[in-house]
Amino acid sequence: MIEGNIVDVRRKKVFPGRIAHKDGVITGVEEAEGDFRGYIIPGLIDSHIHIESSLLSPSRFAEATVPHGTTAVVTDPHEIANVLGLQGVEYMVRDSKTVPLRVYFTAPSCVPATPFETSGATFGPREVEVLLARPEFVALGELMNYPGAIAHDPEVMAKVEVAKRLGKPIDGHSPMLRGAGLREYAALGISTDHECISAEEALEKHSLGMKVMVRQGSASRNLEALAPFAKTHEFLLVSDDKNVSDLVEGHLDRTLAQAVSLGIDPLHALRAATVGPAEHYGLPLGVIEPGRMADVVRVRDLGSFEVEEVYIGGEVVAANGVAKFETKPKEMTSELVLARKVPSDFEVPCGKPLAEARVIGVISDEVVTDSLTATLRTENGRVKADPGQDVLHISVVNRYRDAPVSNAFVKGFGLRSGAIASSVAHDSHNVIAVGVSADDLAVAVNTLVSEGGGFCVCADGKSSMLNLRVAGLMCTKPARDVKRTLDALQARVKELGCPLDDPFMTLAFLSLLVIPRLRIGDRGLFDVSEFKFVDVLL
């Protein structure tokens, strides 16, 4: 028996009671007299998250999140799929089965995200069907190529038809898409969207039958902006991309507390992380009632949502912030096959004394960017960065085959010296770097490659690394160890002048060619609004 003040999220009421369970399933719920401590809520479900963005293997991710009341996630493994294809997806499934956390998957729909970049694998309708036929794959992953969907691209439509034929929901991805284009996109049967950045955008998508996922991640935090919508409409609460430093401190428990602090009713918010996602994806979870899995969480109150105990299948799997299960991550390594780079690989040529350049404008706490311009001086026929204007070099290096480096300029990183580099670069995960000079970029990229991937900071003749040996995306070390290393790297980047809360996650999204406005891929600078490559120099 599990006793406490039971929260009925379906009817939005609380009552003292007892929960009976057998073989992991709730067999009875009864009201009872007594002065019980705390509240028993359904286990929390993050219905849109990329585990790879935590920088942890699935089992280490579970070790970090279950103590915060997370008992299930719906994850799109398209990050590792872009690097290693089905082999990478199988790694995620295999490692997740070693821990109590219930991990459900969506079949990646965009590998690669667009035809304008180089990835390590390609998923067509056949690969999607192979995955969706499996019970642990509960939906078609976010349909990121929304221009292709609206244009009825044959391959995109074939994947949509596979999902419909197999009766699986289709997740969406339509940042800033409004009006006629949005109506066409929604009409394809797109069931969700997690890219809303305003209450007006959320309301429009909701009116078309899409479930609005309110995202509160590490680089994108939309909860406050969407709170006016969330107060009066059903929604789903998701993380999308959340790094290890944030996860160690809190997951959906912390997001729920933030929602309540913004004036959202606690039981209404709780539905967004329990019964809402469970019913959307057809999961036997999310409600404390007979027939559902006995996944419940004891919290101190319905304001802070401080987690005291976590049950999965009726068994205590975490208490007082500590996981009670053993973690033995599966290992997997992959090499970065890159020839050593020289400074000239990272230069932008120009025959004039001054150059007018397009510049990617970083927006704090958002994944969308601005399309800016800047006047930059040249030296020996090469355009120079200008830290005084906060305009730096940005480069993407193809990690899968030898190819020219893609170079451009970016504003918002604030570096006064040095460079940072990453093998996490959504969604194809080529190597991406930002730096003050071509020399700095060459050092950072070469160091990163020699270490087998991860995050790198190079400045003043010193280099620091966070090694991510699993596909260059994740590692198998305990979460707190990874957090310690990542925090030290982030602190060093801030010492170099960077104002961003999470410079590496911000950097990783600058190569995602499906989020407006200006991006950089391994083949060049890309205007997402026009959905075409553009010249760096005007």
Please state how the strands of the largest beta sheet are arranged side by side: 19-18-17-21-20-23-22-24-25
Report the CATH architecture of the largest domain.
Answer: Alpha-Beta Barrel
Could you report the average pLDDT, rounded to the nearest whole number?
Answer: 96
Overall structural class, as computed from helix and strand content, comes to alpha/beta
* Largest β sheet strand count, sense and barrel closure: 9 strands, mixed
Q: What general form does the structure show? A: globular
What is the CATH topology descriptor of the largest domain?
TIM Barrel
Secondary structure tally, helices: 16
Strand composition percent: 25-35%
How many domain units?
2
Tally of extended strands?
A: 28
* Rg calc: 23 Å
CATH class of the largest domain: Alpha Beta
Helix content: 25-40%
In whole angstroms, how far apart are the ends?
70 Å
Low-confidence stretches: none
Question: Can you put this structure into words, describing what you see?
Answer:
With 538 residues, the chain is an alpha/beta fold. It folds into 2 domains: 43-285, Metal-dependent hydrolases (TIM Barrel, Alpha-Beta Barrel), CATH 3.20.20; 343-534, no CATH class. Helix content is 27%, strand content 28%. The strands form 5 sheets. The chain has a 9-stranded mixed β-sheet, sandwiched between helices. Strand 22 and strand 23 (431-435) form a beta hairpin. Helix 2 (78-84) packs across helix 3. The longest helix has 17 residues, at 479-495. The N and C termini lie far apart (70 Å).
